[in-house]
Design a protein that fits this description.
mainly alpha
């Protein structure tokens, strides 16, 4: 008696889809590597800054740590909403990766403020640090980051509104995935803008290391999310 044949592989699967599956897996692995490298950079940075004064409460470093914590924690919230809503493995893996990495980075920034002896809440309105001029000698291509488009107290770039978050929470299926991807692409673009602004205003090795890691990882995720969104009919008006 012969064994029943196993399932026949579906040869009709599009190469582009298989490629995206690989890209999601690569991003997950890459994000874990980023977390490890940032942790090493943090340890090395602490050594390299032993003789350097800690940032003040109105510094770009402190403002970035406070505002990016808020930004990241909303990213965690959005990712957990879609992870619990979607049954698409690509979306689930991407959402889990985003939630894990952004929660870890938010905790790291909380720790900076504790180590510097600074309050978690600043004395100035949010975004004030982004309105100040760039430092002379700041990192090359970041030094011309324009501050004129921001005002103290403005919403952080890319942050979803309460109504947008609730719309995502109420949605289901492909529509929920489209809303998530639309909001998260904007959210990531805002994080890139904030990271660029930090690199134009700081030479602190620990903080700039994290800002560069955010630029690299979230730019890659934006490219993937644009592909996933195209597959689902494109962005939604929200």
């Amino acid at each position: 008696m012969t064994d029943a044949p196993g399932p026949v592989p579906d040869e009709s699967e599009a190469p582009a889809q298989r490629g995206r599956l690989g890209r999601v897996g690569a991003l997950v692995v890459g994000a874990l590597v980023v977390v490890a490298l940032v942790a090493v950079s943090f340890a090395l940075g602490r050594i390299s800054t032993l003789g350097q004064a800690d940032p003040t409460t109105v510094s770009a470093e402190a403002g970035f740590a406070r505002d990016m914590q808020v930004h990241h924690l909303q990213g965690v919230d959005l990712a957990l909403i879609i992870r619990d809503t979607s049954d698409d493995p690509d979306i689930e893996r991407l959402a889990y990766d985003m939630a894990t990495v952004q929660a870890q980075q938010a905790g790291q920034m909380y720790g900076w403020l504790e180590e510097w002896g600074l309050p978690q809440a600043g004395s100035e309105p949010q975004m004030t640090w982004m309105t100040r001029p760039a430092l002379a000698g700041a990192e090359g291509e970041h030094a011309d980051h324009d501050a004129s488009t921001h005002s103290p107290g403005d919403p952080m770039p890319g942050l979803a509104t309460f109504d947008q978050v609730e719309t995502l929470r109420a949605a289901e299926g492909i529509e929920a995935e489209r809303i998530f991807l639309t909001l998260m692409i904007r959210h990531h673009e805002g994080a890139l803008e904030m990271s660029e602004a930090l690199l134009a205003r700081s030479t602190h090795p620990v903080v700039t290391s994290l800002a560069r890691a955010i630029l690299e990882s979230q730019a890659a995720e934006i490219a993937l999310m644009n592909d996933l969104l195209d597959d689902r009919g494109g962005p939604v008006e929200i």
